[in-house]
Amino acid sequence: MRIFRSILSLVLVLVTTFLVSCGSPSATAPPTYTPEKLEQIQTFRIPIDQARQRMSELATYIAREDWVDTQSFIHGPLGQLRRDMIYLANALLPEEQKEASSLAKEVFRHLENLDAAAKERNSPEAQKQFVEAMRDFDAYMQLIPQSAESA
Ligand code: ZN
Fold this sequence. Notes:
By secondary structure, the protein is an all-alpha fold. The protein has helices at 2-22, 35-44, 46-53, 55-63, 67-75, 81-89, 94-119, 123-142. It has a single domain (33-143), classed as Four Helix Bundle (Hemerythrin (Met), subunit A), CATH 1.20.120.
């Protein structure tokens, strides 16, 4: 009985070791992101990447003190961004999810302040809020895992 038990525990050790070595990371992504999850994340990030690329348009409006277009841009092209950023944040690993959600909220806090500054035609405040929004936006982007192809 004792021999049987020690063989059994040895088998368990072998099985566990095998599972652990199978679970070691082989790609750039953390092991807990499955390929399916990564694919989903790459789909969710498309509108966010597009919005990020178009932020230079917003910078141009602010630089020109074109407050009408500044406000239209926040409510138009960036209108869906909050939803998209929260949606993607929820697809991340728990640790990143928490950070990404709070960064997404930060981006929108700054965009709301920017909207208010545009309404008041307050150029320094608008510029400040834009810079802050971009900082938080880029920090958010850093949390998104790369796909196998783009890494
Ligand atoms: Zn901030």
